[in-house]
Amino acid sequence: MATEKEDVYTTGTDNKQAEGKDLLDDKTHVSEAKHAADVEQKMTLLEAVKLYPKAIAWSVLLSSTLIMEGYDLALLSSLYASPAFNEKFGTYSADKDKWVLSAAWQSGLSNGARAGEILGLILAGWISDRYGYKITTIGFLVLMIMFIFVLFFAPNVQVLVIGEVLCGIPWGAFQSVAPAYASEVAPVVLRPYLTTFINMCWVIGQFFAAAVNKGSVGRLDEWAYRIPFGVQWVWPVPILAGLVFAPESPWWYIRNGNREAAKASLLRLTSLNDPSFNVDETIAMIEHTNELEKQMKQGLTYRDCFRGIDLRRTEIVVGIWLVQTLGGQNLMGYFPYFLTQAGLDPSNSFSLSMGQYALGMVGTAGSWFLMSRMGRRTIHFSGLCCQLLILVIVGSLSFPGTNSSVWAIGGMLIVFTFVYDFTVGPVTYSLISELSSTRLKAKTIVLARVAYNASNIFVNVMTNYQLSSTAWNWGARTAFFWAGTCLISAVWVFFRLPEPKGRTYAELDLLFEQKVSARNFSKTKIDPFSQQIDDAIKRVSTDGKLGKEIDQA
Fold it and tell me: Is the pTM of this model over 0.90?
């Protein structure tokens, strides 16, 4: 209970809109919203699966668009180890007595896709807010089918770069839409599973890229690279056919003032024969959270992402995705090329690459078990520390320079992939979906992913020059550089990343509004429906210590 010395902090503002104020002050509406939130937080995983089977299916289908991006990005870096690809798009090196693609063109191809993704992200942020996640995804899938033709028929490396830029546009759109949709169509208990499935899609795409390259690397004609590019047409057509019938996010309808459409959408996402589900109460909870964010002056523009409490949320979400590029995981995408540069033949490098991504899928599935028992913050930080240790070991193995050390490096990189896909990789998608506000979710994810892709341009240039035999030729010593950036990332995560596990969006809104420190998020008790906060919360955020007041509140 509250103490006599307790100060009361209201969550509203003096400029409440009449309609929003009515909703927040309507006791019946607030009671319904609170009951729905309580039911959702107490819901078990099995209950959620039984109630939301359709939401799971639609989310999985939309998230599968990321298989294409995972496939192409792994494919491209793997093709650098293909003799036929290098002969077609590279130049002959007399010193090496073979055809090679220069580090400059490798960077151009990799960064061309990243540049296109940045454009696609910005477009998707605007289009999804205006037309919804479903229409946005359908439109970019059509573009994807068209742009693959450029890659397939590219006569030279210049056209190939243009094809990567064009294909990057829909990939960027999928990056922002998939996590936003997955986080809005499911209850709290399902949210981490559906958002982290996105990482599984990435790994599935990477596995297929390695498998296709393994099957075609022995060819000496143009089909050694045309077959891998052509396989990309396998994904968009069936996904497009299914998404035509998908429901839109009920949260998107509420933000656009269409309560009846939101209710109809929610009914399509749930099991109709479950008597325990009350659709009106769930809609009331969504409306309450939306109005609460409005009263906190959370707008709908990109500028609002850098105002007030949302500035901190934007910084955290951007930082989480930057950690993905700076933690050394770029070496996973260059795995076959990395090993061939270290002395392994292309066929064996692709075989190891397939094992790497298969273990990555096992790791992602294992992360679901981990997240049901541990907090996201703990998993993320622990994963980064393990990655740091592995990178130091990989760098150290570069000094013997023997054939056995090459295989040891390959083994350690496979372990790195498992650790990444067991911890940092999948939990990132859960964190960025939960820590951004619902009204600014699409735009916050867009900004974060733009920063991710921009940083990837730097990472790709560095990695290509570090590994290329025609440039710096660092080999496995490259791991030491990324161990340094991984250490910096771990320090930032320790001080800045909060714990959202088990929290509703309304609870997270109030925790951010009252500036609760990252390390005290999981310990602070809060009731978003009373519109009050104990002064203990403020003391926690100012002195960084959790006193007995919280336990007594």
Answer: no
